[in-house]
Every structure is written in structure tokens, then in C-alpha cells.
From TrEMBL, chain A:
It comes from the Bacteria. It comes from Dyadobacter arcticus. Residues 3-193 form the Electron transfer flavoprotein alpha/beta-subunit N-terminal domain. This is Electron transfer flavoprotein alpha subunit. The keyword Electron transport applies. SUPFAM superfamilies: Adenine nucleotide alpha hydrolases-like, DHS-like NAD/FAD-binding domain. Gene3D superfamilies: HUPs (3.40.50.620), TPP-binding domain (3.40.50.1220). Belongs to the ETF alpha-subunit/FixB family.
Automatic annotation (TrEMBL), chain B:
The keyword Isomerase does not apply. This is Electron transfer flavoprotein subunit beta. It comes from Dyadobacter arcticus. Belongs to the ETF beta-subunit/FixA family. Keywords: Electron transport, Transport. Gene3D superfamilies: HUPs. PANTHER family: ELECTRON TRANSFER FLAVOPROTEIN BETA-SUBUNIT, ELECTRON TRANSFER FLAVOPROTEIN SUBUNIT BETA. Residues 23-209 form the Electron transfer flavoprotein alpha/beta-subunit N-terminal domain. CDD domains: ETF_beta (cd01714). The keyword Nucleotide-binding does not apply. InterPro entries: ETF_a/b_N, ETF_b, ETF_beta_N, Rossmann-like_a/b/a_fold. It holds the Pfam family ETF.
Length: 324, 245
């Protein structure tokens, strides 16, 4: 038997979040006494995929057909199910993302598998199989038992501590995997894909600098961008900021936007409305800069500065530039 | 065009979440319930499409009678009729089976949902229902246009967006800016009272997962305040104390 982990690819490499998911799956496999197999779909170099071994996976199945080039949850779910059958996998693990959820859902329906999305910690495995997941957009947790024979877990970022220093130099064995793909999975045609490839993706970024209405207008964003650059951070914003078109929609963070879980989230001129907090409460460390000492965001923060963003940000940028 | 919109009934986004019965039940006391914000987008786009193409718009909820006011609101916003499957829905798979059962009997052209419910938020019901009906499902959809039998969808993917053309029928999980939320008007509220709300019993199935207990996050430690005059020390603290740089 095995634990099967679906690793998402981006530009031919395994995504950082998926590396974390591999490490998570390896720990689950250790607990169930199985080995961990990774499935990667799309084009990638063998050397890249071998890196799954660094995180403890013994084998990578690589489905690289041209047809699978576009993110296609229907065909990917087909592929995942066939991989699970070949490997006799009883536990299947994916990373929480739009794609991860879609593939997991379709695969669950095919296999009559219990599915839990938003898992935040390793499962408790004994006579029963229990997972903890985030509910009410981070306001609470639920402990849920999965009773079905096959179990599907969709795992959030930071569900385990990934200790990069313990990463081994073992290579995983990469095997080609050729699923039988039904025509139905290709009824839709992809007309266009727009990817901001130069920008650091918010869901992958370790540090995010985010701005709210307190930034006063799009023409005042430069100090925030400079600070983000100095930290190697991605930039985000609150909902009104993207509604007003000060910043692009894909930067909108919160309940109705992107949910992020970086190591460090720095909020500049954001009041900290509960719907905004819902998108950032998975962050390890939160810094708030706001001129209003009563801003609710301070209650959710680890570090706070009461002050004017336009005065503070350039100084922080200078200080960050001296970092090594 | 025959449209089905699936709505969840969730605590208002500002609600304080607590639990009762030994942390096994949500404490609904003093909590205001609303149509899921994403489902509200799905409903708004559904109403626009119905206005454009004619046909019918049904709203569907899997849940108990306390959701009826929210279902009436959906009728007031523009749905023609409603179905409530009378069952507690705590598991996505169970909910999807109930929705798929209704869909099988009615052959809808379009099944619109929210990108995720905001209570037990998962973002998986659309994928499950799509697979159970053997039709494509896409989420999160930001733009949806229909011409003849061809649908053009813009959906968000990691770090960007993808434009797809697909034939009907489809299951879609919606998010902004697919449409503007609609507020019911007086006429809508009046006519909603007489629109049919059919309550049906669920198909029986054993749930594949079972919630055991709930917990609140550990309270956050106090925020460390740094005087504005010493703002630069933040960077050092982040590096040496918080170890996040
Ligand atoms: C259903 C629903 C869903 C929502 N979803 C989201 C969501 O996903 N994401 C989201 O962000 N919001 C969301 N909102 C909106 C949310 O309620 C708030 O309105 C919004 O987050 C406020 O944005 P803001 O903090 O940028 O602006 P404001 O609330 O206007 O706050 C601006 C802050 O900047 C500070 N400030 C002003 N000038 C300066 C200065 N010079 N220096 C330092 N500080 C300064 C002020 O003190 C203030 O605290 C949602 C609302 C609803 C009802
Ligand atoms: N109990 C329910 N009744 C009807 N539709 C639901 C229910 N729960 C979820 N949905 C729909 O499925 C979408 C995704 O839900 P979820 O997978 O729970 O995040 C929601 O936005 C709703 O449109």
C-alpha cells in the first residue's frame, strides 16, 4: 500500500507548497507504515522531479502527455484515480488550491472517498483516522473522522513545519505514467492563459506586504512596492483597494479574495476588518502599520507600529536593505 | 435555459463563532445567518442570465427549516422556485449527493454555486456534483458569458486567469466580479411569499466523514508595539526574534 501525493507543477518545477505537501504525506506514510508515492502532471525535467526524494518520497509517477498541459481538473482527477489504483493508495493527499480542491473533489466522487479540505495538521491515526481542519474562514477548527476506506486530504500551507535543514539528498525514482484519458475530459477548449509569471505568486510567497485604503491612492503605492522589493516579498491589498482599481484584482486578499498563509504578513494602512483577517489568519507572523492606535488589526498582530505609512515605509525599506 | 443555483446558509461574515454542547455544536444564539457571499454572486449572475435568455431559475439548499428566510430572500432576488432538501449538511460529499440527485431528475443547463461556502469552507461541492453528473465543473469563475450553446468562462488560476470555451451543461463555482450582489426590491419581496418552496426528503446515504468536535484557535499573544521613532528595529526583531526574515 502507499500514500499518494499529488504535487502541482509550475513552469516545470514542483511548487513550494507541494514540496511541503510531499513532506506532510511522507509523515503520514510513516505513521501508516506505507511508502509515499508522488504524482506529477504536466511537463517537467526528470531532475526536477527527483527532488521529491529530498522530502522523503520514494517514487514519482510522471504523467507528461501533451494533452495534460493545461490545468484540467477532469483529466487530472482521472489520472490521480488511476495512479491510486495502480499503487493501492488508501490515503491521497493534495495541496489546498483551486486546482487541488477541484482534482480532489472529482477524484473523491469517482472513488466514493471521504474528502476533507483545509486540513491544518497531521492526522491522528489509531483505530480511527481523524483530521483537523480550518472552518469558518479560520475562526475555528473542526476535528473530523474520515470513515471511508479511501481517504482524501486537501492540506493547507503550514500544516507541518518544513525544516529545510533536514532535507536529504536522496533522489526519488521517476516513472512515466500514461493514464487512459476519457474524451469527456477535453470538451472544453482553452482559449487563453494569462499568467503574471514575473510576479511572485501570493499563495507561494514567504513574505507579503499589503496595502489598504490608508495608502490613499494608486499613485502612492511606490513606497510599499519598494519595501516589498527590499524584502523579496509579494504585494497584496484589501478589497476596497482592488474594487477602486488601485491595484489588480488578483492582489485582493481576504474572505472574498485570496487566502494567504505566508511566514510574514505586513499590513500597511489596512484597518483589519474581520473579512480581511479571514484571508490572513494562517500567517505565522503579522505586522501592522496604522496611524490609528485603535485599528482592530492590532488585536490580530504580533508587531505593531502606530504611525504614518508614508513616513515609516521608506525608513523600513532602508533598514531592510541592510539585511543579509 | 434551465438554471439551478445552490445556496448555503452561513453565519454573517462578522459573526463571532462559539460552540456549545461540549464543543460539538455551533452556538447559533445571536448569530445572523445569510446566503453565502459567493453563492450570492452565483445567484446574481443566474438572475441576469435568466433575464437575458428566459427559462427558469431554481434555488436549492440542503439544510433545515431555519434556512427558509434566506431561501425566501433568494426568491425575492429573482429565483422562480426553491427546493430545500430537509437534512443537516455537515459533509461535502453528502451535500453533493443530495444536489446531484435533484439535478438528475431535472436536467439543468447550468448549475451555479459559490466558489466555497464560508462555514465549513471547502470549495469541493461543485467538483463532486460535476463528477456525479459526469459533466465538467470549473471554479472559481470570474466571468461567464453564453452565446447559443457555447459558454465562455474566465476563471482564476494560480497567479493569473484562464479563458475557456465549453459546451453546456456545466457546474460552476462563482466569485466576484461575475456580477454585482443584488438586493431584493419591494415587488420581489411581495412575490417571493407566493413562490413555491418545495421541501423534499434526502436520499439516504451513510456519511463518509463525521465531525467529532470543534475548537477555537488559541488566543493571540499581545501585540508588541514599536514606537514610530524606532521603526527600524522592527526589521531586526523580525529577523532575530520572530525569525521570519
Ligand atoms: C461580505 C463581505 C466580504 C468582504 N470581503 C473582504 C475581503 O475579502 N478583503 C477585504 O480586505 N475586505 C473585505 N470586505 C470589506 C471589509 O469589511 C472592509 O471594508 C475592508 O477590509 C476595509 O479595507 P481597508 O482596511 O483598506 O480600508 P479602511 O477600513 O478604510 O481602513 C483604512 C485604514 O488605514 C489607516 N490609515 C489611513 N491613513 C493612514 C496613513 N497615512 N498611515 C497609516 N495608516 C493610515 C486608517 O487608520 C484605517 O485603519 C468584505 C466585506 C463584506 C461585507
Ligand atoms: N448545504 C448546501 N446546500 C446547497 N448548496 C450548498 C450547500 N453547501 C455548499 N453548497 C454549494 O456549494 C458551494 C461550495 O461549497 P463548499 O464545497 O462547501 O465550500 C457553495 O458555495 C454552495 O453554492
Amino acid at each position: 500500500m502507499s500514500v499518494l501525493i499529488y504535487a502541482e507543477l509550475d513552469n516545470g518545477s514542483i511548487k513550494k507548497t507541494s514540496l511541503e505537501t510531499i513532506a506532510y504525506g511522507v509523515k503520514v506514510a510513516a505513521a501508516t507504515g506505507d511508502h509515499a508515492v508522488v504524482l506529477a502532471i504536466g511537463s517537467a525535467e526528470k531532475r526536477e522531479l527527483e527532488k521529491a526524494g529530498h522530502y522523503g518520497a520514494s517514487k514519482v509517477l510522471h504523467a507528461s502527455e501533451e494533452k495534460l498541459k493545461h490545468e484540467n481538473s477532469l483529466a487530472y482527477a482521472d489520472t490521480l484515480v488511476q495512479a491510486a489504483q495502480q499503487e493501492g493508495s488508501k490515503v491521497i493527499i493534495l495541496s489546498k488550491s483551486g486546482l487541488g480542491d477541484a482534482v480532489a473533489a472529482r477524484a473523491a466522487a469517482k472513488m466514493k472517498a471521504g474528502i476533507v479540505s483545509g486540513v491544518t495538521a497531521l492526522p491522528e491515526i489509531g483505530e480511527t483516522f481523524k483530521v483537523t481542519r480550518s472552518i469558518f474562514t479560520g475562526k475555528a477548527f473542526a476535528v473530523t473522522e474520515i470513515k471511508s476506506d479511501i481517504k482524501i486530504l486537501v492540506v493547507r500551507k503550514n500544516a507541518i513545519e518544513l525544516d529545510e535543514s533536514s532535507v536529504a539528498t536522496v533522489q526519488a525514482v521517476v516513472e512515466q505514467f500514461a493514464p487512459k484519458l476519457a474524451d469527456e475530459a477535453f470538451k472544453a477548449t482553452v482559449v487563453n492563459v494569462e499568467k503574471a509569471s514575473s510576479e511572485l505568486s501570493l499563495t507561494e510567497a514567504a513574505v507579503i506586504v499589503s496595502g489598504g485604503r490608508g495608502m490613499k491612492g494608486p499613485e502612492h503605492w511606490q513606497p510599499l512596492i519598494d519595501f516589498a522589493k527590499a524584502l523579496g516579498a509579494a504585494t497584496g491589498c484589501s478589497k476596497p483597494v482592488s474594487d477602486l482599481d488601485w491595484r489588480p484584482h488578483h492582489e485582493h486578499i481576504g474572505q472574498t479574495g485570496i487566502k494567504v498563509a505566508p511566514n510574514l504578513y505586513i499590513a500597511c494602512g489596512i484597518s483589519g476588518a474581520i473579512q480581511h483577517l479571514a484571508g490572513v489568519n494562517g500567517s505565522k507572523c503579522i505586522v501592522v502599520i496604522n496611524k490609528d492606535p485603535e485599528a482592530p488589526f492590532f488585536k490580530a498582530a504580533d508587531y505593531g507600529i502606530v504611525g504614518d505609512v508614508f513616513e515609516i515605509l521608506p525608513r523600513l525599506t532602508e533598514a531592510a536593505k541592510t539585511l543579509k | 435555459m434551465k438554471i439551478l443555483v445552490c445556496i448555503s446558509n452561513v453565519p454573517d461574515t462578522t459573526a463571532k463563532i462559539t460552540f456549545t454542547d461540549n464543543e460539538t455544536k455551533l452556538n447559533k444564539n445571536g448569530v445572523q445567518f445569510i446566503i453565502g457571499p459567493y453563492d450570492d454572486y452565483a445567484l446574481a449572475r443566474g438572475v441576469e442570465l435568466k433575464e437575458q435568455f428566459g427559462g427558469s431559475l431554481t434555488v436549492l439548499h440542503v439544510g433545515e427549516a431555519d434556512a427558509d428566510p434566506q431561501i425566501r430572500k433568494a426568491l425575492a432576488i429573482g429565483a422562480d422556485d426553491a427546493i430545500r432538501i430537509n437534512a443537516e449538511s455537515l459533509d461535502s460529499y453528502y451535500t453533493a449527493v443530495q444536489i446531484a440527485e435533484v439535478a438528475k431528475q431535472n436536467s439543468y443547463d447550468l448549475i451555479l454555486m459559490g466558489r466555497e461556502s464560508i462555514d465549513y469552507n471547502s470549495g469541493v461541492v461543485h467538483g463532486l456534483v460535476g463528477e456525479m453528473l459526469d459533466i465538467p465543473s470549473y471554479s472559481p469563475v470570474m466571468k461567464l458569458d453564453i452565446e447559443g450553446s457555447e459558454v465562455t468562462i474566465t476563471r482564476e488560476i494560480d497567479g493569473g486567469k484562464e479563458i475557456l470555451k465549453a459546451p453546456l451543461p456545466l457546474v460552476l463555482g462563482c466569485q466576484e466580479p461575475i456580477a454585482e450582489w443584488k438586493i431584493p426590491n419591494m415587488r420581489g419581496i411581495m412575490t417571493a411569499r407566493t413562490k413555491p418552496l418545495n421541501v423534499v426528503e434526502p436520499v439516504s446515504m451513510e456519511a463518509l466523514t463525521a465531525p467529532e468536535k470543534y475548537a477555537l484557535p488559541a488566543p493571540k499573544g499581545a501585540c508588541k508595539m514599536i514606537p514610530a521613532s524606532e521603526a527600524e528595529t522592527l526589521i531586526r526583531l523580525l529577523q532575530t526574534e520572530a525569525k521570519v526574515l
